[in-house]
Write a structure and sequence with these properties.
This protein is an alpha+beta fold. Helix content is 35%, strand content 15%.
């Protein structure tokens, strides 16, 4: 069975989005990188944001690895892996917690794989706020620190868990949080949102997480992972590196 993922809506939703399994690709043009007004808003009585026991601080996972905007790793790495994700997607958070550390340590740190993050925000206002903050942090080459921290501290969908206080605290990862918050509506962030939308339409992204990979500089192909774990992605990356 393919791994579960969060599907993007065919049109602005009237209520909460449903959970679904990957495999059925929805109309890709409906994916947008801004939140729908009223779509996916938390229902009355939803749980409060989840309080993680993981402290915020500079993540050792990324220390010593070059970041440039939305990319992580050496630009001349032989293989590029692209991740499409919504920062409120629970399956994306599972991937970030359970599989990403192994990919970073085994493939990215040694210069064999370069990661690219394409953020989408179809689950609601907290998705949009979180993504804009991450992209703004990317202007200081700290996007991956922010993305990983937000996945580790992900709260209940559209419950307001992406608070200014939480975003401000992300500055402990080693960058200027005030500057990040001031640049969430910058032209650079808007350009990245639009670029991710265009890329998702071309790739046929119907839900998150969604992955593409290929030789750096060549075309990218969607990955059909059997599970959202390190073993599944290892097989794909090893095949590309050996080819």
């Amino acid at each position: 069975m393919p791994p579960a993922r969060r599907e993007a809506p065919k049109q602005p939703p009237l209520g909460r989005l449903s959970l679904a399994f990957g495999g059925a690709v929805l109309l890709a043009g409906a994916l947008i990188a801004v939140s729908f007004v009223g779509g996916g808003a938390a229902d009355e009585g939803d749980a409060a944001p989840v309080e993680s026991s993981i402290p915020l601080g500079r993540d050792a996972l990324f220390i010593g690895i070059p970041q440039d905007g939305i990319s992580l790793g050496r630009p001349d790495a032989p293989v590029t892996l692209v991740e499409y994700a919504d920062l409120q997607c629970p399956y994306c958070a599972d991937w970030s917690r359970d599989a990403l550390p192994a990919v970073v340590e085994e493939y990215v740190r040694g210069g064999r794989v370069r990661l690219v993050f394409r953020g989408l925000a179809f689950l609601g206002p907290d998705s949009d706020k979180a993504l804009r903050a991450a992209l703004a942090a990317g202007r200081q080459d700290h996007l991956w620190d922010v993305v990983h921290a937000l996945f580790l501290h992900q709260g209940a969908e559209n419950s307001g868990w992406v608070s200014d206080e939480l975003l401000q605290s992300l500055g402990r990862t080693g960058f200027d949080a005030d500057r990040m918050l001031a640049e969430t509506a910058s032209k650079s962030v808007e350009n990245e949102l639009a670029a991710a939308q265009r890329a998702s339409e071309v790739a046929g992204v119907g839900g998150t997480p969604f992955f593409q990979a290929g030789k750096t500089g060549d075309g990218l192909a969607p990955l059909q992972l059997g599970a959202l774990d390190a073993a599944s992605i290892r097989a794909e990356l090893d095949s590309l590196l050996a080819g």
